[in-house]
Design a protein that fits this description.
This protein has 353 residues and is an alpha/beta fold. The chain folds into 2 domains: 2-133 and 320-352, Quinone Oxidoreductase, Chain A, domain 1, CATH 3.90.180; 149-287, NAD(P)-binding Rossmann-like Domain (Rossmann fold). Helices cover 30% and strands 27% of the residues. The chain is built from 10 helices and 18 strands. The protein has helices at 40-47, 49-52, 123-126, 136-161, 178-188, 206-212, 241-251, 285-296, 300-313, 330-339; strands spanning 2-7, 14-18, 29-38, 65-66, 69-79, 89-95, 99-102, 104-107, 110-113, 127-130, 169-173, 196-201, 217-220, 232-236, 255-260, 281-282, 321-326, 347-352. Strands 3, 5, 6, 7, 8, 9, 10, 17 and 18 form a 9-stranded mixed β-sheet that branches. Helix 5 links the parallel strand 11 and strand 12 (196-201). Helix 4 packs across helix 5 (178-188) and helix 4 (136-161) packs across helix 9. The chain is globular. The N and C termini lie close together (10 Å). This is DUF2855 domain-containing protein. InterPro entries: DUF2855. Pfam families: DUF2855. It comes from Sulfitobacter litoralis.
Length: 353
């Protein structure tokens, strides 16, 4: 079995290792991973690995080295359980590796990995969805877009749930990221809206964001001073503390809410000065899912998420080029570019172990 290990204290450092696969215990199934996506989302998993628990999903025996979770598709190749038969294909949360052993159970939430070490982790990450054989492109788009656009939609839903905190403008940081562009799209969809959408991005990505057509205004990070001084919400996808400090300092009391979502700029996360205005609050997508499940019943928010991400995926070829890399070891270079902030936002990277 091949795995990519990441230094938990220096997350740009990786190494590929080969380990001996363990025999299955009763009730277990072995899944061969067919493909998985790598995006800035995975950098956030590594950067928040200790704070949110992402390192706990796929533990290793090497102290200080962990496995970053990815989204992808796998096939059951060995089974000692009646729950899963050989040949079943499953979409879900996987290690950056060539295989995974799970303890599958069927319950009210569908198929889940009931392994003891995952029992206290968020349910949404323990669920696995059977998928049919189809074009590889379907697997690739699902892995690349579903997790990110699900987060985008849940942020949108959460903003509506809170009446956008009374904001006249919603500022989306790192608007070139797939989560950022998804949020801009969902915010743009209502025919009547009481807010303006401002995309914040780097100079190199400004034309890309502007070309998508879902922002009323696109500003670069050095244009933060040009923001309108009106009631605002900031949704931060990057975690860049310098950008955050300047935005807070510019808007001050006009900033009604500041939300932290991603950490793609993880190496610029530590605040250098106290922030003016509201204290940033971390947005945790599973919490919004749990809230809606309780309010609406099972399946309702999931159906909305599915419909929402598929709307954007339908036109993905217009703005995203999928690049497929062969072999687990290829993940090292792709992940490194993402972690160092060198990845092209137009590229959707897929690894085929």
């Amino acid at each position: 079995m091949q795995q990519i290990l990441v230094n938990q204290n220096a997350i740009t450092e990786t190494r590929a290792v080969t380990t001996q696969a363990e025999p299955l215990a009763p009730r277990q199934a072995r899944l061969a991973i067919e493909s998985f996506a790598l995006t800035s989302n995975n950098v956030t998993y590594a950067a928040a690995g200790f704070d949110i628990g992402y390192w706990q999903f796929f533990p290793t025996s090497e102290n200080g080295w962990g496995i970053v979770p990815v989204w992808g598709t796998a096939r059951v190749v060995e089974s000692r359980t009646d729950v899963l038969s050989v040949g079943t294909r499953l979409y879900g949360f996987y290690p950056m590796a060539s295989e995974l052993v799970i303890t599958p159970e069927n319950g009210s939430a569908g198929l889940v990995d009931a392994a003891a070490h995952r029992a206290k982790l968020p349910l949404i990450y323990n669920q696995y969805t059977p998928v049919k054989n189809g074009p590889a492109s379907e697997d690739h788009l699902r892995a690349l877009l579903q997790p990110l656009l699900a987060t985008s939609y849940l942020i949108y839903d959460w903003l509506q749930d809170n009446d956008c905190f009374g904001a006249d403008q919603i500022i989306v940081g790192s608007a070139s990221s797939k989560t950022g562009l998804g949020l801009c799209r969902y915010l743009f969809e209502p025919k009547e809206r009481a807010y303006q959408i401002v995309g914040l991005t780097s100079a190199g990505n400004r034309a890309f964001v502007k070309g998508l057509g879902h922002c009323d205004t696109v500003l670069t990070y050095d244009q933060i001073a040009d923001l309108d001084h009106v009631p605002s919400v900031y949704v931060d996808m990057s975690g860049n503390s310098t950008v955050k400090a300047e935005l807070h300092g510019t808007l001050k009391h006009q900033l009604k809410h500041s939300s932290a979502v991603g950490l793609s700029h993880w190496n610029q996360f530590t605040p250098t000065t106290p922030l003016e205005g509201p204290k940033p609050q971390f947005f945790f997508a599973p919490s919004q899912v749990a809230k809606r499940r309780q309010e609406w019943g099972p399946g309702k928010i999931e159906a909305q998420i599915t419909a929402a991400w598929k709307r954007i995926a339908a036109s993905a070829s217009d703005w995203m080029d999928v690049q497929v890399h062969e072999g687990v070891e290829a993940a090292e270079g792709v992940y490194a570019a993402l972690a160092k902030g060198e990845a092209d936002p137009k590229i959707g990277a897929v690894i085929r172990p």
